[in-house]
Fold this protein.
Amino acid sequence: MAYYCHNCGNELVFAVKVGIKVGREDVCPHCRADLHVCKNCEFYDPSLHNQCREAFAEFIRDREVANFCPQFTFRDGSPPEKSDEAVQSKAKLEELFKNLK
């Protein structure tokens, strides 16, 4: 089992303990992003109308802000994929700062 932050992609080592529950006020130790959010949930699916595979989940407007969803289950698996746009932007920034040295 491995748990990753939806925001920074870093592994959350503390969350590997068996039976751990992520509380509404828990934050990532690396980037301080909220952890009890839709984007960290195993039911999150942006391709669906409600963006959730749980049939009885209430609509949540901001998927990156802590919420009270009782169906929340931390997603187990690989770190979030970086989009091509994000990779290209990072490469451009690295090139810019390399030229400033």
In short: The chain has one domain: 1-101. The CA atoms of residues 29 and 84 lie 26 Å apart. The mean pLDDT is 83. The radius of gyration is 16 Å.
